[in-house]
Amino acid sequence: MSDLSTEPELEKLRWEIAALAGRLRSAQLERDSWRARCERLTEQRDREREKARKLRGSGSYRLGRAIVSLARDPFRTSPRLVRGLARRLRPRAGGVPAVPGQSSSTPSAKRRPAHLYVAIGLDHDALRGLLVTIGQRLLVTPDHRPVVLTDDPAFSLLRKLGVLMEYLPDRATWERHRPDRAWDDLLAERLARLCRDHDTERTVVVDRLHPPTLAELLC
């Protein structure tokens, strides 16, 4: 039987599994975020109910009821009440009533979705080539925001290429300084955080021996 489980294939499979684990953790974090949001909305609903209860017993609410009575049957409303209402409703000097729901701000344009490129194990030249290829891909079809995860310590020299990069220490460096914590766990947690922070739509695991060409990225 031919040996199909070569080391590069196994390594790429590990990256893909780590990427899936990262997206799973990101989904779990998003679920927890929605739960917390629902709890906040419930608390806000309860506060609004309490405000409404207090408002019904306030003088402003009674004033509003008097206005409604005046509008419905003005002939039975006493002149004293009319003068009181006019005094209460008179706008202050220089005051301009606000229009409910009116806003001068314009909605911002919808952001393009983010794609996370996991480029672990690429040397500096290969990483540069990948960034150039991604830039060419966006010139053809600018349909996403690229985020590249790299373990190249000299990645800052490539920032001028205009692609957002995130750094993760390589396995050997991490295990030398932090043997108490598994590098695979660090990778999974970092992928989860990047998926959450950038709201990534797609994760691309880059083969360090055969980085994708422009044609492959356009597929």
UniProtKB/TrEMBL annotation:
The protein's UniProt keywords, in alphabetical order, are: Coiled coil
The coiled-coil segments of this chain are 10-58
Give the protein name, as stated in the record. Answer: Uncharacterized protein
Q: What is the protein's species of origin?
A: Actinoplanes siamensis
